[in-house]
Design goal:
With 513 residues, this protein is α+β, with helices and mostly antiparallel strands. Helix content is 16%, strand content 55%. Strand 2 and strand 3 form a beta hairpin. The radius of gyration is 29 Å and the shape is globular. The N terminus is likely disordered.
């Protein structure tokens, strides 16, 4: 499935799982269901709607969406909204709900492809609570699954796709306040575990290097996760927002959320051109965070205690093992035009990274280098003035200059440790955007960066012993370092202060520019 297919399917599923919480009477719940579907660009039709004294029954409900040529259709045979008599409304639906996604013919083909899926919600309970304008609901299911039942279309049988995702002990809550452009939502859900299985074939793989046919590619994937959770708040994403994010942000749209999981395992097998590859991965925890609003765009990811093993017919070792204690990435950048500086953040971290001795032996067969775990951390932040709306394609196309000015930049932590050597540093800078001449078009900086290198000479000696550097090359490198660093006479340590001041560049007090 493409991005548009996933987006359409996700929108339909969101209506299925969340819309009924918007009301306190059956009529209000049903109306809010229709309103939310409309906001996603969907069309609702039903065979009948029967209104009783304490319930509304909708029969033969079909929810359809057509986006970028991809059509999704979900059918609910019976949907019942029941007044509990205490200000709450129960929502019931069939345990199994079919969903079809049809994509247009690919280039050179004449028939569309239709994927039929089934959404199964075992022991589902859903109750709407709250008051008008501020409605929430609670839901729970002992098991929720999405399964591919069949594929129809060109080469559907050759694909032979089997795919299913299962969530155990799913429960959560969802609430919405307001409506339309002023709506605000919050959600919080968890599941004891998730299991995903996928297998299938690619009937038309890329040809081999000599141009011959390779035969179908076989794929098998199994992923298991424990202790899943998802939470977020902000403006509900609708069709209008997706079509013009710049306009939505100018109107105050703001959404952020987090996804996390505990122990995770993955097993991946693929056979291509008769050659097999097997990969296994495990991790103690993972997390994702995201946000988009007037304050900017943000994306973050973390993973801890990850181990990965790969082996296969094309790998010249029995297997390759990779592990690390922690990996993290965080990006926060302003995207909305403002006259005042806005904050940004960029973090990249890989802690205690190790790799198989077989890989080390490729460039260090005599074990010259310490094979201690490697670490790299780049933790920075700063401020910038955004002069154009970055999410507005028209504004970006018309730009003749960069869409912003750098005001300040702080290196909170710089650390690189590998093969017995370690470099650390920290510093901060401000920038004069009125002077773009002194440093060749770059705003003139003021500030300094403090650096410290330990074990550098020892590492260089080992590289010379390995034959990676000639002795005279190493001597030239040491002389160059001497221009920028102060060397300790009794230990393998160098320090350096790199400073920009008075429109010049200094190293340890010596002006170099």
């Amino acid at each position: 499935m493409g991005i548009s297919t996933l987006r359409t399917t996700t929108a339909l599923a969101a209506v299925l799982l969340s819309s009924p919480a918007w009301a306190v009477t059956p009529a209000e719940v049903w109306q809010s269901w229709q309103d939310m579907a409309t906001s996603y660009g969907q069309t609702l039709t039903s065979e009948s709607v029967e209104e009783g004294d304490d319930a509304i029954t909708v029969s033969g409900l079909t929810m359809t969406q057509d986006q970028d040529g991809v059509t999704s259709e979900m059918t609910i045979s019976e949907l019942v909204f029941t007044d509990n008599g205490d200000g709450t409304v129960d929502v019931s639906m069939p345990e199994v709900i079919p969903l079809t996604v049809t994509t247009p013919p690919a280039e050179g083909e004449t028939s569309p492809t239709t994927v039929t899926l089934s959404i199964t919600q075992t022991d589902l309970s859903m109750t709407a609570t709250g008051e008008a304008g501020a409605v929430g609901y609670d839901f729970a299911s002992s098991e929720t699954s999405i399964k591919v039942d069949k594929i129809e279309g060109v080469k559907a049988e050759a694909v032979d796709l089997v795919a299913e995702a299962k969530l155990a002990d799913l429960e959560g809550s969802y609430s919405v306040e307001g409506s339309g452009a002023d709506a605000a939502l919050s959600y919080d859900a968890s599941a004891a575990s998730m299991n995903l299985t996928v297998s299938g074939k690619d009937p038309d793989p890329s040809p081999s290097a000599d141009g011959t046919a390779t035969g179908p590619t076989d794929l098998n994937l199994v992923i298991s996760m424990a202790d899943l959770s998802v939470s977020g708040e902000g403006t509900p994403i609708n069709t209008a927002m997706m079509e013009d994010f710049a306009k939505a942000l100018a109107g105050g749209a703001d959404s952020q959320g987090e996804v996390s999981a505990g122990a995770t395992t993955m097993v991946f097998d693929v056979v291509e051109a008769g050659k097999a590859t097997h990969m296994e991965m495990s991790g103690a925890s993972t997390g994702l965070s995201f946000g988009l609003g007037p304050d900017g765009f943000g994306y973050g990811a973390t993973a801890k205690d990850v181990k990965m093993m790969v082996k296969g017919d094309d790998i010249p070792f029995p297997q390759v093992d990779v592990a690390y204690a922690e990996a993290a990435f965080d990006l926060q950048i302003p995207v909305v035009k403002k006259d005042t500086p806005q904050d940004f953040v960029l973090l990249s971290k890989l802690v205690d990274f190790t790799i198989s001795d077989d890989i080390w032996a490729m460039f260090d067969p005599t074990n010259q280098l310490p094979r201690d775990p490697a670490t790299i951390v780049i933790d920075t932040k700063g401020t910038a003035t955004v002069t154009a709306d970055i999410m507005d394609p028209a504004a970006m196309e018309s730009m003749q200059t960069p869409p912003g000015e750098l005001n300040s930049f702080d290196v909170t932590e710089l650390r690189a440790k590998v093969a017995g050597a370690e470099l650390t540093g920290a510093g901060s800078f401000t920038f004069d955007n009125t002077d773009l001449v002194t440093f060749g078009g770059f705003p003139t900086p003021t500030g300094k960066l403090e650096l410290k290198l330990t074990g550098g000479n020892g590492l260089l000696d080992k590289l010379v012993a390995m034959g990676m550097f000639a002795e005279d090359e190493a001597m030239g490198f040491r002389m160059m370092l001497g221009m920028f660093a102060n060397t300790s006479p009794d230990k393998d340590e160098m320090t350096s202060t790199l400073e920009f001041k008075d429109k010049g560049f200094f190293a340890n007090g010596q002006r170099l520019q």
